[in-house]
Amino acid sequence: MFDQAALNASLNGISAILLTAGFYFITKRKISAHRACMLTAFGVSTVFLISYVIYHIRVGNVRFLGEGWIRPVYFTLLISHVFLAIVILPLAIITLSRALHDRFPAHKRIARWTLPLWLYVSVTGVIVYVMLYHLYPHS
Question: What range defines the domain where residue 71 resides?
Answer without folding.
Answer: 4-135
